[in-house]
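User: I'm putting together a teaching handout on how sequence relates to shape, and I'd like one worked example. Could you take Helix-turn-helix transcriptional regulator, ArsR family from Geobacter sulfurreducens, show the sequence you're using, and then write out its predicted structure as tokens right after it?

Assistant: Happy to. First the sequence, then the structure tokens directly below it.
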Amino acid sequence: MEMEEFDKSRNFTDEAEIFKVLGHPVRLKIVAGLCTRECNVKHIWECLGLPQATVSQHLALLKNKGIIEGKRDGVEVHYTVVHPLAKKLIDVLG
């Protein structure tokens, strides 16, 4: 195998970070659910059967990494997936 077969110009840093963040089963479930519809925290933790604090911590990490975005609606925040690679990954996982 020759070195010319590899694209040296791509470092995949951003992609690796997305894979690392989505490497947790709960975060994958959250992102998969948010790919189908916009949800608030209460709906997510009720669906997953997890404590609200646990879900909020996962949502905070996903939001900080730019994978999801929250829109305030009164006292509620509705989350949706905004990162295209995250959406593609969920599509591939089916």
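A couple of points you could highlight for students: The two ends are 33 Å apart (CA to CA). The CA atoms of residues 40 and 73 lie 10 Å apart.
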